[in-house]
User: Which sequence fits this backbone?
């Protein structure tokens, strides 16, 4: 971007030349919708429905309980982990999939605390998604004797630091290698939450101790899809999974009374995988294995910058102005953000709202194009200029904002 | 049953008169398979595939992230809980669904320990499925200072007792109200694992403190389907969810930094529900709401008893001889149980094997009939009499037994 804002024809020309354009056909979106909420729930992969039908009818229906052996269900947590690994700079045998991000946060932080038994401080960051705090608060309350400290107070004396690569609210991006090095220099371990970066950019947690993330945002694996947990190889022999369920046992089918952890990252598997939810994840990963992530990041920055330029100074930017310092979302502030967003959605432009005043727009480069961004921005300006949001229909709060 | 074993025609006559016979059409089973593993993974409900298609295409595909409001996803953990409640003797607002049985065990036992802070003993039972032990071992290791004690040592001084209504290996059934009263008399709280009883019989945990269970066995909700957690109303105000994720927060969408538990059982929801896995659960519960459970139990006992009579003294019975003292499974012992079971499966009779020597046969009364049991038993006797299991094909161990 040059600072000279493009017109709609120029956007269409960029779409025509976009090397990622072919991926749009891999996803299903309703007619007339510009979907800028892929940072919250990704669009359905075109093959997800068929993949689920196959799992229900051909796998469960035909193999029944034999699906654990004959349909690959038993291996899902590690097999999916190995497919996610390249997306976060990890290698095979370093990522396990299952459960939820909240559970993975609990596992990672608890394991880190056991690796730093002489320290009693947990550092979190108000920019983390709230569930990260909540899980750490629950863990600290369970253990007793730990101090929860905000990132603003620094890393000194910290056993573990829990940070997010991309802020869910503003899209602000942290420098993972640099912050990891700072945490390590202070003697702390670090857990990265990748929920808002994985699938949106090249992620590299290979220097970090643990990482967690969800698969239903940019990765498009469906509502409530399983989460992932990365454990650095240097910790795999010593790290303990306090949620020591049978799926992480060295020999689950020996049915022993005593827990013996499996070798490697498998010990962080807790329980029987949610096979049907894994099916949609597999359909999504079939797409991701063909995606050049450098192109995703380049397009993501270009889309965000186009949006910012088109909106101009009409709304305050809650995100960093430098696209390299953002994830794949742009957040704007408006004191009546809730009805503004409802009015916008009513006109086919889907973003979301985060209290108290943030409008979020996510740009998933696999299915969002330049002309989409152009149309989204002009619709937003129209809603603002004509005050279309001043309508009682738009003020009633829904359960989920 | 009278002790006079039925012939096949008599079994067919019983099937023709069976009031539950109509439910067989609600499930899909492959031609030529007698499926006696419904105690491990239930058969697919006929409408599960369509229900999943609807969730992917009509809900996720049409509403996108709006599915949280417009497709009922947000309410799934409590809505499904209210539908499971009648199956376990609970009322509305007492059951929450999500995660896995292992996670639910951790939540329930941790909550019970916090309610009995003056006690330091956790009682478990070698008849529990191993993951129950493992989760308690992980919890105790995390907390420090707790003693794990076997049920054989009694309830004295116990903070919490973790028992299973039906033993996964032998099918032996415990008397829930009587054992609950004993635990309470000793000042302990009790957590019941209902994995092997829910959907197989009338369950009543209304006197217990907590209960957990899975939905993929007799309830037929699919591989790795979400688990449930029951919390007695008398504990709901004080019980803490140590896995305090955002879904159990009083106002998840206020995005507060501090955790404030929701009122009631909702606080035990941890994280974003696995929506696709819930879809199959909902298809299964559509069947269960029409099932008369007293008829299920009566038929279940009759099927088990028929099987035991047909097998006679050919194999040692690992289950209690009294059908009222069993769940809906019959377990037999054979020193070469593994190849015997493989040979049986090869002949269309599906049971499973549990080390070291147990053959398990589950009788799910909604889709198993008297003639099925007759054919299963005669095939088993044939495999034994002709030593058909002495074949190298049957000794190779699969990953999942």
Assistant:
């Amino acid at each position: 971007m040059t600072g000279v804002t493009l017109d709609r024809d120029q956007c269409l020309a960029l779409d025509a030349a976009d090397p990622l354009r072919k991926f749009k056909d891999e996803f299903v979106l309703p007619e007339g919708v510009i979907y800028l909420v892929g940072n919250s729930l990704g669009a359905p992969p075109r093959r997800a429905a068929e993949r689920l039908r196959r799992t229900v009818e051909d796998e469960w229906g035909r193999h029944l309980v034999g699906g654990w052996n004959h349909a690959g269900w038993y291996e899902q947590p590690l097999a999916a982990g190995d497919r996610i690994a390249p997306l976060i700079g990890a290698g095979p045998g370093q990522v396990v999939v299952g459960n939820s991000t909240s559970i993975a946060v609990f596992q990672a932080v608890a394991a880190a605390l056991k690796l730093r038994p002489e320290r009693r401080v947990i550092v979190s960051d108000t920019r983390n998604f709230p569930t990260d705090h909540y899980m750490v608060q629950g863990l600290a309350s369970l253990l007793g004797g730990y101090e929860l400290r905000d990132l603003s107070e620094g890393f000194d004396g910290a056993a573990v630091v829990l940070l997010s690569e991309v802020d869910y609210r503003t899209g602000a991006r942290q420098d993972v290698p640099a912050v990891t090095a700072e945490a390590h220099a202070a003697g702390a371990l670090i857990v990265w939450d990748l929920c808002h970066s994985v699938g949106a950019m090249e992620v590299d947690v290979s220097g970090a101790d643990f990482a967690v993330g969800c698969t239903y945002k940019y990765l498009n694996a469906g509502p409530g899809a399983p989460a992932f947990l990365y454990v650095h190889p240097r910790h795999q022999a010593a790290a303990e999974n306090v949620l020591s369920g049978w799926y992480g046992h060295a020999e689950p089918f020996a049915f022993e009374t005593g827990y013996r952890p499996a070798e490697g990252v498998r010990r962080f598997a807790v329980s029987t995988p949610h096979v049907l939810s894994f099916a949609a994840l597999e359909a999504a990963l079939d797409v991701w294995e063909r995606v050049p992530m450098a192109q995703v990041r380049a397009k993501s920055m270009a889309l965000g910058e186009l949006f910012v330029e088109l909106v101009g100074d009409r709304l305050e930017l809650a995100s960093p102005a430098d696209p390299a310092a953002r994830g794949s979302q742009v957040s704007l502030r408006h004191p009546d953000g809730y009805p503004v967003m409802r009015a916008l959605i009513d006109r086919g432009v889907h973003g979301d709202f985060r209290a108290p005043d943030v409008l979020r727009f996510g740009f998933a480069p696999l299915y969002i194009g330049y002309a989409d961004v152009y149309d989204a921005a002009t619709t937003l300006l129209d809603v603002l200029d004509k005050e279309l949001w001043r309508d009682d229909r738009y003020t009633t709060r829904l359960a989920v904002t």
DSSP finds eleven helices and 13 strands in chain A.
